[in-house]
Amino acid sequence: MKIAECSFQQAPEILAIFNEAIATSTALYDYQPRTMANMEAWFAAKRSGKHPVVGGFDDDDRLTGFASYGTFRAWPAYKYSVEHSVYVKKENRGQGLGKRLLGEIVEAAQKQEYHTIIGVIDSANETSIQLHQSAGFTLCANIKQAGYKFGRWLDVVYYQLILPTPAHPTEG
Fold first, then answer.
1. pLDDT for 63-91, tens place per residue?
2. Residue-averaged pLDDT of the chain
């Protein structure tokens, strides 16, 4: 399994991973499948923000999972914080890929001089919570009944990792 930067060439595979998560889980609080137009906008936002999209690839160069981060909140004082996501194809879960992908984006965030990387996780997603805890993330918020999907209210938890960067933060 190799880890490499994704390009728009992987958009159909990323789209399939997103749509499987939308249809079968509370990993995404979307109701409707995403489209290629959504992926074009998603990749454009990643490019403009200089936010990486890294993927895990099998021996046949098929995408098995991906991770990225983006703007946490769009106000200037949040410029050192990013919100990340990690998704692994159903058949590739439990093999350590999520941990590798999370490590890659944490390293990228540090290189880009971010200070806080935040994961927003459905509170019932014990696998994701354990993954984040094993990587040093700590619980920083629990929002009750923040979403509604599959006929029930959903709680979200925020996990954060504080990085030692930047060395010299500035305002403005």
1. 999 999 999 999 999 999 999 999 999 99
2. 97
The rounded distance, in Å, linking the Cα atoms of 129 and 30 is 20
CATH number given to 2-162 = 3.40.630.30
Domain boundaries, the chain: 2-162
Q: Measuring CA to CA, which residue among 93, 121, 87, 119 is closest to residue 106?
A: 119
The rounded distance, in Å, linking the Cα atoms of 168 and 60 is 43
Which structure tokens are listed for 120? 């927003």
Taking the mean position of all CA atoms in its chain, how far away is CA 41? 16
How buried is 158 (Cβ within 10 angstroms: 0-12 exposed, 13-18 middle, 19+ buried)?
middle
Integer Cα distance of 154 and 90 in angstroms: 22
Q: What is the pLDDT of residue 172?
A: 83
Lookup: tokens for 162: 């504080």
C-beta of residue 100 within 8 angstroms of C-beta of residue 107: no
Contact predicate 64/43, CB 8 Å? no
